[in-house]
Amino acid sequence: MSQIHDQTSRSVTYxxxxxxxxxxxxxxxxxxxxxxxxxxxxxRRGYGEANLFDGVKSDDDDVTRVQRxxxxxxxxxxxxxxxxxxxxxxVVEFLTEKVSVGIQEATESLATRNKDDESTLLxxxxxxxxxxxxxxxLRSRFYQLLGNELDNVIGYNDSTSEFTFFIGMIIYVNDxxxxxxxxxxxxxxxxxxxxxxxxxxxxxxxxxxxxxYIEEVPFGVVTIPTExxxxxxxxxxxxxxxxxxxxxxRTKVLKGLDSLIWDRSFVWNMSNRADFGLQAKILNSLxxxxxxxxxxxxxxxxxLSHPFDEEQWCPLSVDLMTSCLHSIADCLLLSTEKxxxxxxLLGFARDAANxxxxxxxxxxxxxxxxxxxxxxxxxxxxxxxxxxxxxxxxESVKINRSSIDDYVKGHILDKEWYLIHQIVLVVHPIASLIxxxxxxxxxxxxxxxxxxxxxxxxxxxISYYKAKTRDWKSLL
Length: 476
Description:
The chain has four domains: 1-58, no CATH class; 61-155 and 246-300, no CATH class; 161-225, SH3 type barrels; 305-469, Topoisomerase I, Chain A, domain 4. Helices cover 51% and strands 11% of the residues. The chain contains 16 helices and ten strands. It has helices at residues 38-45, 49-54, 62-80, 85-109, 115-146, 150-154, 235-259, 265-269, 276-300, 315-334, 338-361, 368-375, 404-407, 415-431, 446-453, 460-469; strands spanning 2-6, 11-15, 170-174, 186-196, 202-208, 213-218, 222-223, 379-380, 390-393, 401-403. The two termini are 51 Å apart.
């Protein structure tokens, strides 16, 4: 099979050589002009127009995938936060009854037969974690809608709610026991009073919809009405029944959300169900899933902007960001001790600062090695910029950005700017995710971070930044 790229129309035409028949199970995309949303799927898979013509990476690249997924997470959150109570109920029912059960069964066995099965399993493990993320947003919206009624729902025990009756409750009478001499009756009714028979079972006095009065209605013929029982019944009666059902329905929603919570033991139990190679792949997939959640939280709280964006973060900073996020993700996945995470974060920051110093201490020349080193500190000027448009930040009162070519001719890097904007402004927001639980200052602080990387903590911008971030609460 061959392909021809039309640079004018940016389309791709595929030709299949009939002398080379397709192999069994070989996949060939015959349609090209999908337009709309499907083009995004093509880009994720690596054969969209942007991949072919603009060098856009597929989802095989972790950073590119995370950036795409973050956009979708914000759209998902926006959608969920617009739900009404009934929409939340429907979504929770769908997730618990149609999605969660299958995912849990598949990921509990961790059985694979080939590479395709393994790929599916990795996605299922990610889906298992993402259900937890969605459940938290659904719960937040549900609490917001309930407001002052929330306490009544949380305190409501529905373990026996189907057979807990009260005066004024609408019920359904299912005729009388066999051999009863009563006139037959099947239909809706409202409880007027409740008493006990000699066996301590409920017996009701009931009024029917047409105003008739029935005595001694035994517990055994009474059930909770369903939606279908209200066909051709007044809307007033139906709404009254819906209102009496609310505690049970709302509690069911909360229990459904509880069932979607991430099981922390899942990772630890993998050792009994999967070989080492598969364990490593699952851990890596979940680690990046946690990183997405951490970045989503940081961005939502305006603590970190445009993660991995090459216009804002240099490669040295991107590597630092990735290492720090991995460390926090491991803390959540593997329950790493906070002290260990603290040491790692400061260690990563120290290594980045040392790399910065090493680059600055090199003799400035135009050798390939020197340009390669400077590339670690370079930014893309614009989104569609070419390689020649990469710039570094230099010491200058009026102009503090210089092309790499200009830099190697004699400028001096602005070390303080890099320490602040490419190290502190990466590490501190990520560190703010954690509640360090250290009132006496024995663990993390921004002062310790500055000391570690050799930055004066009284630097004007740091003083301003400390004031700005003083009220930050941990997000985990």
